[in-house]
């Protein structure tokens, strides 16, 4: 051991002496090259080249093997290279045997690759079997300089190993070299590295005691080495802008440049070179030169035997090369251009160096393009993208080739053009496979500084899978007028399955867009200043009952204080626009209390409109406790509309505070002239009015316009209070609802209680990869939040639990979702619409009670979850739009709502929000979040159904009436303020009048074509189809489809297909990954498609309907979609009944009624009727039907039994529990058991051709909601009375009746045209239960028509 140390000391002295004589820069460069070389590894069995020529040949060998193996680590490739070399150097094997042996290692290889292996092997002249293990026999062929370098390198490593275990630490010379950029590769430090260093230092001669001592020393110094290495690496990466490095905290933050380098596997040296030389004005010559400077080519040298061939190549490449022939950059530049041009080489050395280009060119030029793209340099980005395509396709770009001219030529003309007529057809096919896109841009001004551009992309080429694969990528670049800066860029993938569709891209900033006729919107007035007022105490309400409602706090916040007087002490219309989380709900409650105070004697009727159902449920729960019948409430009747017309009319009658969504209130209020309870509304509150500019905003606009018109025509005043987020055009909105300047409050976004909002962009085009990249910063933020708010109980706990697991265990046991149970055990909850309501309530309660610290919420629940937190992280701002087949940005309103959850009332003075988004969207979000944006109307896109409803309600009767109707809308007000947004080219009276007249004429014309309205002499009147569409609240296009598609011979399959293709189902969400699920779902159903397009929402509706009938379970988001399908199906089927009855189709009417029963009870018409019973399965139903002596086939068989007999039978036969028996008992009580009698009035006086009156008396015991646990919501029974002729299959009379305890109904229909007896059938059909329908036959004996004399006598007698 002492001898080894002595030798090491002598070598170190010799090295120090040589180092003093050698220049410092050269010494550092030599050492850096040695450390960075991939051939520097001295592991046993790895070949070490001894000269530059053999080193280049060996690296070429590694490159070829890497191509064959594909993505293997360097150690694997090196091992394979040694094995291949051993085979190639084995002189006892023939070439065929060598190839066979190599194929055992690398799989099958072509002859050309084997020939390349042989040529490379011949150039590796310093390979000796076994020489690499010890290095004993490998030094003979080295020249003096190489030998010295090799010895010096070995000694240097040996000395470093001795230094690690010594006590002197790192000397000044080593530290100085480290600061100059020499770094130990941290990835090399592992157990094997440690073993090698120990072996080098002590030559494997250690006893147990020395080994233990050595281990302690090594373990003591390793942390310092790691810290030093990591700090050094981080400093270099920060210098090259690859990361952001906080030296105090040691925190790393990735940069866009770092992501690009990591994605394309590029060294920091290459990035440093690009940072230094990239300029926006670079030309092609400089771009190719920059590529040649990449560090990936640092080992490429110019050999003497290559110069002659390089001179020839320099004359053949199109891009001039300025470097000298001795410069390696010249060689790389020539090789790149030769690679693109697919040139052949004469010598072998250039062929082997071409491996560098083959391996690296694609990723390097792609990285260059993305770096330039991120910097927004338009001209250079175009050049870099062009270079990417040339490298990818290995061909030069010909800019003077006009493809458009060849598109218009026929195959014969093309053949004549190239003077090869037979090739014309082939050439025509190939030309039309070239990816050609037709572009159309539509510009809409949002503000005076923000434009919205809608780009429509229409593919215009023939897709060939062999040519295009499954998708074609495109870059969409928006440049400024000078073509210097990129304003917006977007990556667009055209997929094979959507080749026949138009694609729409929306963004807010080479297709030239003209602004010649652009009219910018008018300037917006300044916002309302938030005054520095003394906060109002709760006692300002001056009513002990009211003050008791707000016991949780003593005073109102600044926004509430400023609006209090107008809302609570006056009856003016008010608009309160403030950021989310400002306490606007309490502002609405001021108006409710004012209304209650005034109307306490005469009664009150308040309507609150929530934009989405989730928010309506939240408000109903909150106000039920605050204003309802509870111990601390005001004993008011608070109700929430359901969407079922019969139920909602009852709720409207009894409710004092009615909570609804816009669609439900629109369905009830469209017939306001005939509904007195709608006319009695005294206070109308609209929450989140800014959503008038979003999806569904047209309905919100219609109901507000209707209430304003009602207020002007009725005697009683209707006060309108609107709540909104901050708006730029709040003055227009306030004027529209009738708010004066005293009632208009538009606070700026800066008053939000979330003052700290940070936006971090992630520059990754692929959605899935971008979301994956966001997980790390999101996790870091959660850890930071945990550390910031940790308490004594949760300190040291690695999970996010704020209480002990024992405390939370009782709640976890109640969770039905297994994944949710596991997550809650670690203090993390999640909420999405696929969870049951009970699971959602438990998670919300645990989070509010601070049992868990983190809750992950899907974006769709941002409106319906009443949770708040100190920190909100918005992880991604896009969702998948199945209708457009792309990822679309969240509406700004949704994003503002998410931000509003970041502040816990009564706990935080402020909140924090971090938004992780796609990098190109970052600047847009900055503008949207810190500036108030205007809202625009979308009513003109959804005008047909609203005009039809107003025609049915007799509000509109002609063209002038329709124009007058539009003047009440927000659309009319914004038309003059931002004309270009609505495609209006001027703001004069003539422009507006012409625009509105054309809009009304086109709308009425479409309604007339669909047979919803009739136009005669300028008067517009409703037809039967229009009345049906308005009554059932369905689209005019749907009722038109029903009218054209349904026939008297339509069967079950056809009816379901027509139902599924209703326009109401076109809005069903299509999510990624659902196609295969829907395809499997369809194949297992009763009716299936041959080649279903599973991306079509109508096909999805068809599959979900049948899955419901077959009782196939669907989970997650599909269950929510199924709920929407079922709720719409009931209305649509009732409309089908009316359409069929209008045409007199008896069989189709009865079939639609039966399908309505099937939808409610979730079973097919051919299934056992017993499946309607709770807890009954097909097995239990079969057992009941086969029970000896008691064949129970219908529900009525059970209903007719005595209570004890039925209970004993079910207990004995089906082994049911008491709870299950009680459920069945309740169902039997509610199941319709009707006693019905009927008679033909004045049957003896019926004459042919006259009207017959049929009176029906019905009596039943129990009347109530339908017992249908498998239907999504509570439903009232509906019944039809039908008179039909079974011989002619014609329907003569129909009436829809609500069934009470006792009902008396009259039906009128025409007697037969000829005298004599005529048989008819009376049907009594239910829309909710199967097996309770009644069918009765009766006969009418019609006498001969009366003569004119008899008519006179009859008239005289009646007189």
TrEMBL record:
Give the Gene Ontology MF terms in alphabetical order.
Answer: ATP binding; hydrolase activity; RNA binding; RNA helicase activity
Give me the ranges of the annotated region Disordered. 1-53, 128-161, 1340-1359
Q: Which PANTHER family match?
A: SEC63 DOMAIN-CONTAINING (PTHR24075), U5 SMALL NUCLEAR RIBONUCLEOPROTEIN 200 KDA HELICASE (PTHR24075:SF5)
Q: Which CDD domains match?
A: DEXHc_Brr2_2 (cd18021)
What is the uppermost EC class here?
hydrolase
Which GO annotations describe the biological process of this protein?
A: spliceosome conformational change to release U4 (or U4atac) and U1 (or U11)
Write down the SMART domains for this protein, in alphabetical order.
Answer: DEXDc, HELICc, Sec63
UniProt keyword Flavoprotein, yes or no: no
Helicase ATP-binding domain spans which residues? 565-745
Acidic residues: compositionally biased ranges = 140-154, 1347-1359
So what EC number does this one have? 3.6.4.13
PROSITE patterns, per database record: HELICASE_ATP_BIND_1
**GO CC terms on record?**
endoplasmic reticulum; membrane; spliceosomal complex
What's the superkingdom here?
Answer: Eukaryota
What is this entry's stated membrane topology?
Answer: Multi-pass membrane protein
Cell location: Endoplasmic reticulum; Membrane
Q: Which UniProt keywords apply?
A: ATP-binding, Chaperone, Endoplasmic reticulum, Helicase, Hydrolase, Membrane, Nucleotide-binding, Repeat, Transmembrane, Transmembrane helix
Its name, as the record gives it, is Putative RNA helicase
């Amino acid at each position: 051991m002492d001898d080894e140390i002595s030798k090491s000391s002598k070598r170190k002295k010799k090295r120090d002496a040589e180092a003093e004589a050698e220049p410092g820069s050269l010494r550092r460069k030599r050492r850096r090259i040695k450390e960075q070389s991939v051939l520097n590894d001295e592991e046993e069995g790895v070949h070490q080249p001894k000269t530059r020529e053999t080193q280049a040949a060996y690296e070429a060998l590694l490159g070829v093997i890497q191509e064959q193996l594909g993505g293997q680590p360097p150690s694997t490739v090196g091992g394979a290279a040694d094995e291949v070399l051993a085979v190639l150097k084995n002189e006892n094997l023939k070439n065929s045997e060598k190839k066979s042996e190599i194929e055992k290692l690398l799989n099958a290889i072509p002859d050309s690759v084997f020939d390349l292996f042989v040529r490379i092997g011949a150039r590796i002249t310093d390979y000796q079997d076994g020489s690499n293990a010890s290095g004993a026999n490998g030094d003979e062929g080295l020249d003096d300089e190489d030998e010295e370098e090799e010895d010096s390198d070995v000694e240097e490593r040996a000395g470093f190993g001795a230094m690690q275990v010594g006590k002197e630490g790192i000397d000044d010379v080593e530290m100085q070299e480290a600061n100059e950029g020499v770094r130990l590769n941290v990835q090399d430090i592992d157990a094997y590295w440690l073993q090698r260093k120990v072996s080098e230092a002590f030559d494997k001669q250690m006893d147990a005691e020395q080994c233990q001592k050595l281990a302690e020393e090594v373990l003591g110094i390793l942390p310092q080495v790691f810290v030093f290495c990591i700090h050094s690496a981080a400093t270099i990466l920060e210098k090259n802008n690859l990361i952001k490095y906080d030296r105090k905290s040691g925190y790393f933050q990735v940069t866009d440049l770092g992501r690009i380098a990591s994605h394309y596997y590029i060294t920091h040296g290459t990035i440093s070179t690009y940072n230094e030389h990239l300029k926006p004005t670079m030309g092609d010559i400089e771009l190719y030169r920059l590529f040649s400077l990449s560090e990936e080519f640092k080992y490429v040298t110019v050999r003497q035997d290559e110069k002659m061939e390089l001179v020839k190549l320099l004359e053949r490449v199109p891009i001039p090369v300025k470097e000298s022939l001795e410069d390696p950059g010249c060689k790389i530049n020539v090789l790149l251009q030769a690679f693109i041009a697919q040139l052949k080489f004469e010598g072998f050395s250039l062929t082997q160096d071409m491996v560098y280009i083959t391996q690296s060119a694609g990723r390097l030029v792609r990285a260059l393009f993305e770096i330039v793209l991120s910097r927004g340099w338009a001209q250079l980005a175009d050049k870099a993208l062009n270079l990417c395509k040339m490298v990818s396709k290995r061909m030069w770009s010909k800019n003077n080739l006009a493809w458009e001219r060849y598109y218009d030529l026929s195959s014969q003309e093309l053949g004549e053009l190239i003077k090869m007529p037979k090739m014309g057809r082939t050439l025509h096919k190939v030309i039309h496979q070239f990816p050609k896109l037709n572009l159309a841009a539509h510009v809409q001004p949002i503000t005076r500084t923000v434009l919205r551009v809608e780009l429509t992309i229409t593919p215009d080429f023939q897709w060939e899978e062999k040519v295009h694969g499954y998708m074609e990528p495109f870059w969409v670049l928006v440049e400024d007028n000078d073509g210097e800066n990129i304003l917006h860029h977007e990556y667009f993938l055209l997929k094979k399955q959507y080749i026949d569709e138009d694609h729409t891209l929306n963004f807010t900033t080479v297709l030239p867009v003209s602004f010649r006729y652009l009219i910018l919107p008018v300037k917006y007035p300044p916002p309302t200043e938030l005054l520095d007022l003394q906060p109002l105490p709760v006692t300002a309400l001056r009513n002990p009952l009211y003050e008791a409602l707000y016991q949780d706090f003593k005073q109102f916040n600044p926004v509430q204080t400023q609006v209090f007087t107008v809302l609570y002490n006056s009856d003016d219309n008010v608009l309160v626009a403030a950021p989310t989380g400002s306490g606007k709900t309490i502002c609405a409650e001021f108006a409710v209390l004012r209304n209650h105070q005034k109307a306490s004697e005469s009664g009150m009727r308040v309507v609150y409109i929530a934009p989405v159902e989730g928010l309506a449920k939240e408000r109903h729960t909150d106000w039920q406790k605050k204003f309802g019948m509870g111990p601390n409430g005001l004993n008011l009747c608070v109700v929430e509309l359901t969407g079922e017309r019969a139920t909602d009319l009852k709720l409207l009658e009894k409710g004092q505070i009615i909570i609804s969504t816009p669609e439900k209130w629109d369905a009830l209020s469209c017939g306001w002239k005939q509904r007195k309870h709608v006319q009695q509304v005294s206070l109308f509150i609209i929450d989140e009015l800014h959503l008038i500019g979003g999806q569904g905003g047209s309905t919100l606009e219609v109901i507000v316009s209707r209430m304003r018109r009602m207020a002007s025509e009725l005697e009683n005043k209707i006060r309108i209070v609107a709540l909104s987020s901050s708006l730029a055009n709040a003055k227009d909105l306030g004027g529209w609802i009738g708010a004066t300047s005293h009632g208009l409050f538009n606070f700026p976004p800066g008053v939000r209680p979330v003052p700290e909002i940070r936006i971090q962009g992630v520059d990754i085009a692929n959605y899935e990869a971008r979301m994956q990249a966001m997980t790390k910063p999101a996790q870091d933020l959660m850890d930071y939040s945990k550390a910031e708010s940790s308490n004594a109980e949760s300190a040291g706990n690695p999970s996010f639990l704020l209480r002990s697991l024992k405390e939370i265990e009782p709640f976890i046991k109640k969770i039905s979702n297994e994944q949710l149970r596991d997550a809650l055990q670690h203090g993390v909850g999640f909420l999405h619409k696929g969870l049951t309501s009970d699971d959602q309530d438990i998670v919300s309660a645990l989070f509010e009670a601070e049992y868990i610290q983190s809750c992950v919420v899907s974006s769709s629940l941002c409106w319906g979850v009443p949770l708040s937190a100190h920190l909100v992280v918005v992880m991604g701002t896009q969702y998948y739009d199945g209708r457009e087949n792309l990822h679309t940005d969240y509406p700004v309103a949704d994003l503002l709502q998410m931000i509003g959850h970041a502040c816990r009332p009564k706990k935080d003075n402020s909140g924090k929000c971090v938004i992780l988004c796609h990098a190109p969207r970052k600047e847009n979000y900055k503008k949207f979040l810190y500036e108030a944006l205007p809202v625009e109307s979308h009513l003109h896109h959804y005008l047909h159904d609203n005009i039809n409803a107003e025609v049915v309600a007799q509000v509109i009767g002609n063209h002038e009436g329709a124009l007058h109707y539009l003047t009440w809308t927000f659309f009319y007000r914004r038309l003059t303020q931002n004309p270009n947004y609505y495609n209006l080219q001027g703001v004069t009276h003539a422009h507006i009048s012409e625009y509105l007249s054309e809009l009304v004429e086109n709308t009425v014309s479409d309604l007339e074509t669909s047979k919803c309205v009739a136009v005669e002499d300028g008067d517009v009147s409703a037809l039967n189809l229009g009345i049906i569409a308005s009554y059932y609240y369905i689209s005019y296009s749907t009722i038109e489809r029903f009218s054209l598609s349904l026939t008297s011979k339509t069967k079950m399959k056809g009816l379901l297909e027509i139902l599924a293709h209703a326009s109401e189902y076109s809005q069903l969400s299509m999510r990624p990954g659902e196609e295969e699920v829907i395809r499997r779902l369809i194949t297992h159903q009763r009716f299936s498609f041959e080649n279903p397009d599973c991306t079509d929402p109508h096909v999805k509706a068809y599959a979900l309907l049948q899955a419901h009938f077959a009782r196939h379970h669907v989970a997650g988001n599909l269950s929510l979609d199924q709920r929407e399908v079922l709720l719409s199906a009931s209305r649509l089927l009732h409309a089908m009944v009316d359409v069929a009855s209008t045409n007199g189709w008896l069989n189709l009417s009865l079939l639609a009624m039966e399908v309505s029963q099937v939808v409610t009870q979730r079973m097919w018409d051919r299934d056992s009727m017993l499946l309607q019973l709770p807890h009954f399965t097909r097995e239990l139903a079969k057992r009941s039907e086969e029970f000896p002596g008691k064949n129970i086939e219908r529900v009525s068989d059970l209903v007719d039994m005595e209570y004890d007999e039925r209970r004993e039978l079910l207990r004995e036969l089906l082994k049911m529990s008491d709870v299950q028996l009680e459920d069945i008992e309740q169902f039997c009580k509610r199941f319709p058991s009707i006693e019905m009698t009927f008679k033909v009035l004045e049957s003896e006086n019926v004459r042919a051709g006259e009207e017959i009156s049929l009176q029906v008396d019905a009596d039943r015991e129990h009347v109530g909601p339908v017992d249908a646990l498998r239907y999504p919501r509570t439903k009232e029974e509906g019944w039809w009375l039908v008179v039909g002729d079974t011989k002619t299959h014609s329907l003569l009379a129909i009436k829809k009746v609500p069934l009470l305890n006792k009902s008396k109904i009259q039906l009128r229909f025409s007697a037969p045209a000829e005298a004599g007896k005529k048989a008819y059938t009376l049907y009594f059909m239910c829309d909710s239960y199967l097996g309770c329908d009644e069918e009765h036959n009766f006969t009418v004996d019609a006498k001969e028509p009366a003569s004119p004399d008899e008519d006179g006598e009859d008239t005289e007698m009646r007189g």
